[in-house]
Amino acid sequence: MQRLVAPSLLAADFTNLKRDIEIINNSEADWLHMDIMDGVFVPNISFGIPVVEAVHSISEKPLDVHLMIVQPERYIETFKNAGAHLLNVHYEACSHLHRTIESIHNSGMKAGVTLNPHTPVQLLEEIITDLDLVLIMSVNPGFGGQKFIPGSFEKIRKLKELILKKNSKALIEVDGGVDDTNAKALAEAGVDVFVAGSYVFKSENPAEAIRKIKYPV
């Protein structure tokens, strides 16, 4: 399968947000990743619904919305109406995960589940066939610019084995410390979708940075 790249808007220049989104529009990126943080589930606050709506009005890429919030089930329709294409909720934040995934699908969005670094992939065994995507956090969630956790490789391989075992169509996404030095190895481990923030938006040529992840040598 072709590798998908989803630049993370958290690393963009918020004083020139429209410019940075246009850069992504004109690149080979496939999605635009948006991290929604509430200051409760993770120790940081990012942006809310008005920003998602504004980004949706400019972005030509589907919005990959990652909810790092408590009680994400309360906001499914809200994010659908704001323009989310794929809604990603944390396993650790959902008391009734199957119901939440079902609600996301019923709203017309793709549904994903995110696992924090300490959460084993085996916990998804009973729901993996219902998912469109699983996001592996390769850093601790809440802040950009962190270093990649090496143990994520083994976790990705285990997730790939589970997907094949259960005949699931779920894609594997990875977020945290992704760049041109590990993109090839991540793809070989089973990653389909690469989230990259600082590596893309802090580079002199973001479009070229995206290309290096999408077509690693």
Describe the structure in your own words.
The chain is of the alpha/beta class. It has one domain: Alpha-Beta Barrel (TIM Barrel), CATH 3.20.20. It contains eight helices and eight strands; from the N terminus they run E-H-E-H-E-H-E-H-E-E-H-E-H-E-H-H. Strands 1-8-7-6-5-4-3-2 form an eight-stranded parallel sheet. Helix 3 links the parallel strand 3 and strand 4. The protein starts with a strand and ends with a helix.
Which strand order does the major sheet show? 1-8-7-6-5-4-3-2
Helix content: 25-40%
Secondary structure class reads alpha/beta
Strand-residue proportion: 15-25%
**CATH fold-level name:** TIM Barrel
Secondary-structure element series? EHEHEHEHEEHEHEHH
General form: globular
- Name of the CATH homologous superfamily: Aldolase class I
Query: Which architecture does the CATH hierarchy give at level 2?
Result: Alpha-Beta Barrel
How many E-type strands?
8
Distance between the termini: 16 Å
Organism: Alkalitalea saponilacus
Function: Catalyzes the reversible epimerization of D-ribulose 5-phosphate to D-xylulose 5-phosphate.
GO molecular function, one term: metal ion binding
Binding site for substrate: 8, 66, 142-145, 175-177, 197-198
